User: Fold these one by one.
Assistant:
Number 1:
Amino acid sequence: MDTHRVVVVGGGFAGLQLAKDLKCPDTSITIVDRRNHHLFQPLLYQVATTVLATSEIAWPIRALFRGRKDVSTLLGEVVGVDTEARVVSLKDGNAIPYDTLVLATGARHAYFGRDEWEPFAPGLKALEDATTIRRRLLLAFEKAELEADPERRKAMLTFSIIGAGPTGVEMAGIIAQLAQRTLVEEFRSIDTRSARILLIEAGPRVLPVFPEALSRYAEQSLIKMGVEVRTGIPVTACNENGIAIGDEFVSSRTVIWAAGVQASNAAAWVGGEKDRAGRAVVQPDLTVGGKPEIFIIGDTASVKAADGTPVPGVAPAAKQQGKYVASVIEARRLGTPTPSAFRYRHLGNLATIGPNSAVIDFGKIRLKGGIAWWIWGLAHIYFLIGTRSRLAVGLSWLWIFVSGHHSARLITQKETLKDEV
């Protein structure tokens, strides 16, 4: 039997789960990613807000598969796919042949046609995004300490988060904690408690995927923490001086985008159909129509759940898809019956708001407050890779819970005092 070449593009949750589960004789796996690490995205906002260090939520892909001789890892950026020749083209000119191709290239933040806002309102999808936001966040307080003009100082201490999904809510809560508790005694010219934290949502409520009662609890909790919540009004402008909320302009030197995502170019690479969000429309077995040797999974795939609703772009869904495709490839190789159509099993929605405050929706079971916060923390620690990471994150959270101090508050870039926008 000839060696079957499986090429997996993307080292996120979907791609790694597939490589982990696919263990078949005479089958080689090549993982291609433009970064050398796997990122635990659900906690990326905690790097951006000084809670965790980058090393606590990211791991070298090579190290994860050091014991698997059938798995190779390549650092490279895919720019196209020749479906006739069955090769993947890299930006550096190299080409990788495949027998089975799995595209798990994820998604990037989307600005709904206003890409010119990105320099002023960075999104959050990669470690580079998180460190950029962290730098701007910390520099805002540092520059306000030096600023004599009260209006300019006010603008520097106004933090605007656009989008009130889980990432926006969680980020607003941590920034509030940072200003109200962590930094209070560390500055002399400013009172960090005067910081204005805005959470803006164009829709009618925060956490729209949660039941209305939990959404209402989250909003009330944020308001108690000092966050100003604006719902039902879209942001209409964004520049280096601030944002416009409807017709009102707010001077804000730190703006964070948490409003939407856009799929990768996977659909265009293979000539597949796309949905309105740019995701590739796939068959029930997650293959591309007319190309059974090509699978698209994770955030860049558009697939329906059993009830007809779209499968959400969350980590559990990506991991389930990776596991399913591994079983399909294995069945094909061994000549056994292939599994039936992919079925997504919803595990629930979780979001943390602040210290000892979170919301959880497990369907029939809905929790809020302290017990939800502990369950949220334990769930995230459980899914981290490696004992060292679980211990490090657990200790960081325990330290913050007891002391209120965030440990990852270093500004290390050479351009520390450089104006960024």
Number 2:
Amino acid sequence: MKRLIDLFRNKYFLAIAAFGVWMLFFDKNDIIAQYEYSVQVKKLQQEKDFYTKETALVKKDLKELDSNLNSAEKFAREKYFMKKANEDVFVIVKEETKK
């Protein structure tokens, strides 16, 4: 018990403990802020991956459209539901079943 009391009376131990508490809880970059930053980084990385995949798909579609005129008509019909003057277009949407 005496060693513990002597430890708490030591000015170097008190200075290090105060510094540690300050850095962990009161500093601008405390533990909570670091956790929030890591969550934000993970979210931004997921968004980056999503947009990278979307960009690759768009580039593939653009390359296909530039290479073949028939694919342009197919693309317009499938993506934008465009039609010729004398046709009707029916869009069928599958209903999701609720469990």
Number 3:
Amino acid sequence: MIVRIMGEGQWQLADDKLDQLNAVDTDLEKAVAAADEAGFRTAFGALLDFVRSGEKVPDGDLHDSDAILPPSDSSLAEMRELISGDGLIAG
């Protein structure tokens, strides 16, 4: 799966990482729903770090993204507007 972090690029994650990715996304969703700023920062940082642990796609190679994450400097208020009932990662 290909995940884009806006302003940073794309990373390829092995398909078998989807469950782990969804677990980290669920933590983020819970923190946002609870308006927990510290929990949001921790969970969003963990989500971004997890994605960055994948293989970076060279900037010149553009692929359709399976998921698009907002920039790392996104606020809790901005995230609240982005998250649906499925979190940021559908699935």
